[in-house]
Design brief:
251 residues, elongated, mainly alpha, single chain
């Protein structure tokens, strides 16, 4: 049956291939050599926008081939977000995360999309507070599920950079009005808190890098940038001993 499905697909007869692949998936066969049947059907139904059959085969694929969970998640994200623009796409992520609360990939990918949107050209003069709140919430959820170097770095990088932005907002308030002085004080306090909050995430990147015998180039970059963040933070905190420690590691 498997070879009949493959032959039908090679002959450009996808519909006939689906008939044979469905024979395998309807039988709930879970041997690793048959995973292609589930992947083929998932992609076929996604392309056809057959939501009911897509959801069914994805659910079955997750159950029978849990080691391929990242693949099922990627397809589910593609299906849910196809043709959806930002910020509406974030509602799709919220729904997927509610459906799969223990899936690390969903909140992490959501965080990456939010980060890009917050710092995009179209949002330069817009109020991004709500999206920043969503970003920290999604990243916290991802890290709680799986504390990876990538998620920790994104959190450290965001908190550090946002603290700089908040400090700049505070500097613009130079008037003597009580309301302005109050706002300036609140912004300075927020900036200080975010700088402090960034420390454990950057430190986690550094510690995880030390446990990695074969780091990729992207991991090396995140490691070095985390050291730079830590050095800069302790310069702000006027802690020369810590600055020297991280400066040495950078060099």
């Amino acid at each position: 049956i498997l070879y009949s499905a493959i032959s039908a697909n090679d002959a450009k007869n996808k519909d006939q291939a689906v008939v044979y692949y469905r024979k395998l998936t309807d039988a709930n066969i879970a041997d690793t050599q048959y995973v292609d049947a589930y992947q083929y059907l998932a992609d076929y139904y996604k392309t056809k926008k057959d939501d009911a059959n897509f959801a069914g085969i994805i659910e079955k694929g997750r159950k029978l081939y849990p080691k391929n969970n990242d693949y099922w998640t990627a397809l589910e994200i593609e299906q849910a977000t196809d043709g959806v623009e930002k910020p509406q796409i974030f509602d799709k992520y919220d729904a997927l995360i509610a459906k799969h609360p223990d899936n690390y990939v969903l909140p992490f990918n959501y965080s990456v999309e939010l980060y890009k949107y917050i710092y995009s050209d179209e949002m330069k003069n817009a109020n991004t507070t709500a999206y920043k709140d969503k970003l920290t919430k999604a990243l916290s959820q991802a890290i709680a599920i799986h504390s990876t170097p990538e998620a920790n770095f994104l959190m450290a990088n965001y908190l550090y950079n946002n603290s700089i932005d908040v400090t700049e907002e505070a500097r613009k308030l130079k008037g003597p009005k009580p309301a302005d002085l109050k706002t300036k004080k609140e912004l300075e306090a927020l900036s200080s808190k975010q700088v402090t909050d960034a420390i454990p995430y950057a430190e986690k990147v550094v510690s995880l890098f030390g446990e990695n015998p074969k780091p990729k180039s992207s991991e090396k970059m995140n490691y070095k940038q985390s050291l730079v963040i830590l050095k800069n933070i302790y310069e702000v905190k006027k802690d020369p001993a810590k600055v020297a420690v991280y400066d040495k590691k950078i060099k």
